[in-house]
Amino acid sequence: MGGALSTRWAPRLPGFTPVQGFCAEAGGAITLFLATFLGIPVSTTHTITGAIIGVGAARKVAAVRWNVASNVVFAWIVTLPATALFGSVSTSSEGSFSEMLQVTSA
Q1: Which of 13, 98, 1 is CA-nearest to residue 59?
Q2: How does pLDDT run across 42-93, given as a tens digit for each residue?
Q3: Which of 39, 48, 68, 75 has the fewest Cβ atoms within 10 Å of its own Cβ atom?
Q4: Taking the CB of residue 96, how many other CB atoms lie within 10 A of it?
Protein backbone atom coordinates (compact mmCIF):
# COMPACT_ATOMS: atom_id res chain seq x y z
CA MET A 1 0.00 0.00 0.00
CA GLY A 2 2.78 2.44 0.85
CA GLY A 3 4.44 1.85 -2.52
CA ALA A 4 1.14 2.55 -4.26
CA LEU A 5 0.91 5.82 -2.36
CA SER A 6 4.39 6.82 -3.44
CA THR A 7 3.74 5.81 -7.05
CA ARG A 8 0.47 7.72 -7.17
CA TRP A 9 1.34 10.94 -5.37
CA ALA A 10 5.09 11.39 -5.80
CA PRO A 11 4.90 12.26 -9.53
CA ARG A 12 2.33 14.95 -8.71
CA LEU A 13 4.65 16.71 -6.28
CA PRO A 14 6.41 19.61 -7.97
CA GLY A 15 10.15 19.07 -8.20
CA PHE A 16 10.02 15.52 -6.82
CA THR A 17 12.94 13.89 -8.63
CA PRO A 18 13.62 10.16 -9.06
CA VAL A 19 16.46 10.45 -6.53
CA GLN A 20 14.10 11.97 -3.98
CA GLY A 21 11.60 9.18 -4.70
CA PHE A 22 14.34 6.63 -4.09
CA CYS A 23 15.29 8.34 -0.83
CA ALA A 24 11.66 8.31 0.34
CA GLU A 25 11.26 4.63 -0.55
CA ALA A 26 14.61 3.69 1.01
CA GLY A 27 13.83 5.65 4.18
CA GLY A 28 10.44 3.99 4.42
CA ALA A 29 11.95 0.54 3.85
CA ILE A 30 14.66 1.05 6.48
CA THR A 31 12.03 2.24 8.95
CA LEU A 32 9.88 -0.82 8.25
CA PHE A 33 12.82 -3.22 8.61
CA LEU A 34 13.86 -1.60 11.88
CA ALA A 35 10.30 -1.68 13.24
CA THR A 36 9.93 -5.32 12.22
CA PHE A 37 13.24 -6.21 13.88
CA LEU A 38 12.09 -4.49 17.09
CA GLY A 39 8.65 -6.11 16.90
CA ILE A 40 6.82 -2.79 16.57
CA PRO A 41 3.66 -2.87 14.44
CA VAL A 42 3.65 -0.01 11.93
CA SER A 43 1.65 0.95 8.88
CA THR A 44 3.42 0.98 5.53
CA THR A 45 1.20 3.82 4.37
CA HIS A 46 2.08 5.93 7.41
CA THR A 47 5.74 5.13 6.95
CA ILE A 48 5.97 6.13 3.29
CA THR A 49 3.84 9.23 3.87
CA GLY A 50 6.22 10.31 6.61
CA ALA A 51 9.20 9.61 4.37
CA ILE A 52 7.72 11.69 1.53
CA ILE A 53 7.06 14.57 3.94
CA GLY A 54 10.63 14.21 5.23
CA VAL A 55 12.12 14.33 1.74
CA GLY A 56 10.05 17.40 0.93
CA ALA A 57 11.08 19.10 4.17
CA ALA A 58 14.76 18.25 3.57
CA ARG A 59 14.55 19.95 0.19
CA LYS A 60 12.74 23.03 1.41
CA VAL A 61 10.62 23.31 4.55
CA ALA A 62 8.20 25.65 2.78
CA ALA A 63 7.68 23.02 0.06
CA VAL A 64 5.57 20.93 2.46
CA ARG A 65 1.96 21.97 2.87
CA TRP A 66 2.00 21.78 6.64
CA ASN A 67 -1.75 22.21 6.99
CA VAL A 68 -2.22 18.99 5.00
CA ALA A 69 0.60 17.27 6.89
CA SER A 70 -0.95 18.25 10.22
CA ASN A 71 -4.27 16.73 9.09
CA VAL A 72 -2.44 13.50 8.26
CA VAL A 73 -0.74 13.42 11.67
CA PHE A 74 -4.06 14.12 13.39
CA ALA A 75 -5.61 11.19 11.50
CA TRP A 76 -2.75 8.96 12.62
CA ILE A 77 -3.32 9.95 16.24
CA VAL A 78 -7.08 9.35 15.99
CA THR A 79 -6.65 5.97 14.26
CA LEU A 80 -5.30 4.09 17.28
CA PRO A 81 -8.00 4.95 19.81
CA ALA A 82 -10.73 4.60 17.17
CA THR A 83 -9.62 1.08 16.25
CA ALA A 84 -9.24 0.19 19.94
CA LEU A 85 -12.82 1.34 20.55
CA PHE A 86 -14.11 -0.61 17.55
CA GLY A 87 -12.24 -3.71 18.68
CA SER A 88 -13.61 -3.39 22.19
CA VAL A 89 -17.19 -2.97 20.99
CA SER A 90 -16.94 -5.86 18.56
CA THR A 91 -15.36 -8.12 21.20
CA SER A 92 -17.96 -7.28 23.85
CA SER A 93 -20.76 -8.00 21.39
CA GLU A 94 -19.11 -11.25 20.26
CA GLY A 95 -21.35 -13.31 22.53
CA SER A 96 -24.53 -11.98 20.96
CA PHE A 97 -23.13 -12.56 17.46
CA SER A 98 -22.11 -16.13 18.25
CA GLU A 99 -25.58 -16.80 19.74
CA MET A 100 -27.20 -15.60 16.52
CA LEU A 101 -24.95 -17.84 14.44
CA GLN A 102 -25.34 -21.01 16.49
CA VAL A 103 -27.07 -23.82 14.70
CA THR A 104 -29.27 -25.92 16.89
CA SER A 105 -28.88 -29.65 16.43
CA ALA A 106 -31.96 -31.80 16.24
Answers
A1: 13
A2: 888 888 888 888 888 888 787 777 888 888 888 878 887 888 888 888 777 6
A3: 39
A4: 9
Burial class of residue 73 (count of CB atoms within 10 Å of its CB; 0-12, 13-18, 19+) = middle
Q: How many CA atoms lie within 13 A of 86 on its CB side?
A: 6
Q: Taking the domains of the chain in order of start, what are their residue ranges?
A: 1-64, 69-106
Nearest to 3 by CA among 19, 33, 26: 26
How long a stretch of residues is the chain?
106
pLDDT digits (tens, 9 = 90+) for 12-45: 565 677 888 888 889 999 999 999 999 988 888 8
Whole-structure pTM value? 0.59
Q: What is the maximum alpha-carbon separation in the chain?
A: 72
DSSP 8-state code for residue 61: G
